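Hey Z.,

So I finally got round to the gamma-amino-butanoic acid thing we talked about over coffee. Here's the setup:
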Amino acid sequence: MSVSNDLYPNASAPLERKESGVPHVRKGLKVESYNDFDPLKHVIVGIADNQYIPEACPASNEKIPADSPMRGGKAGRRTQESIDQANECLNGFAKLLEGRGIIVDRPGAVDWNARVTTPDFSISSGFGVMPPRDCLLTMGKSILMAPMSFRSRYFEYLAFTDLLREYFESDQECLIEQAPRPRLSDDSFRMDYVAAYEFLSDEETMARSCRKEYSTRETDILFDAADVMRLGKDIFVQHGLTTNLAGIRWIKRKYEPQGYRVHTLSFKDNHPIHIDATFCPLRPGLMLLNPHRPLFDGQREIFEKNDWQIVEAAQPAWDTPPPLCYSSTWLSMNTLILDHKTVCVEATETAQMEQFDKLGFNVLPVNLRDAYAFGGGLHCATADVLREGTCEDYFA
Ligand code: ABU
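And the result:
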C-alpha cells in the first residue's frame, strides 16, 4: 500500500526493485556493532512525520504520568506544528552526524493513522518511528526486531523493513531477525494493576517495582531493544515494565550459544523502562548511573571487580518533561556517543555537558528537546548500524 509522501517528507524513499522484486541497493553497506561507544559510522535517525498519540494500552498506562492529559482522551494525531518542530530537531541532528562522515538513514513511511488490529486487540492508531532504539537491537552482524509490549507499537518494525532488506542484500554477512511476536491480549497483562495504576502513590509504585511486579505478566516473551545494554561479550538487560523475565530468558537462549554472556539488571525506579536513561556506558571502563535509580544490591560488583568506574549523572536542567512526553527529565543522560572522546548531548542540558567536559569528552550540543515527546532523547532517537571495533571481553 502506498502512503502519501506529503505525510512523510522525511521518510526514506521506498526501495527501487528489479523485475524479480530484488531491490537495487547501495553497495558496500556493513552491519556490525558491539557497544554504544566505539566510532559510529552508520546510524538510523527517527522521524516525527505523521506521529500519533495512541489510546493508552495496558503497557503504556504504567508509563504515562498520572497527571498527563495522555491518560484521558488525548489520543489522535500530534499537531503539525509540534511535528514540524520535532523534525527540525531530528533533521538538524541527522545533518550534524552526516557532517562528521556518518551515514544516516531514516525510517520508511507507514500509515500510523490506521487502527492497529490483531485477533487479540484493537487500538486507535500506531505510534510512529521517532525512537528506533526501542525496536531494533543490533547485535554484532545482526539486527533483531524486538517484541515490544505497547499495542500501538505492534507493527512499528514495518518502518524498517525496506532498510533492513537493503542491509541484508548489501552485506553478505548481515542477518535480519525477528523475536517471537507477542499476543498482547488482556491475558498478557495484570489488568487489575493497569486499572489501579493511576490511583497509586509514588511509594506504592516504588514498592511494587522493588518487588519486581509490573503490569506485564510472563505470558508473552517481551522486551524493548532499549532495555538491552551491549558491552562486547557482556549483555546487560533491564527487567522492568517493557522487558519481562521470559524476554530475558529468550535473549539468553538466543545469544549465549553465540559466545555472549547475558546478565539481568534491576534498578530502584518507579517506572523502569529502557536502560538508556538509567545506566549508560560512556567508554571502556566508565559507566554513567542515574542517581535516582540505584542498582539493586550486588549488581555493581561485576563492574567494580573489573575496574569499571561508575559515576552519577549530573542533575537534569528541567524539572518536568515537555508536554505530552512519555519520558522523564532524565533524558538529560540519554546521549549519543560518537567515539571514546565525542558525545552528543541535548543542548539545554548544561550540567550534563559540563560533566562530560570534565570527564574528557568533546561535547557536541544538539537541540532535541522539541522531539522528546515523540519518543525520547538522542540515544532513543537512533539505532546503530555500524560502529568500528570488535567484540571485546571487558569482564573477563
Ligand atoms: N526511553 C527512555 C525513557 C527513560 C525515562 O523516561 O527515564
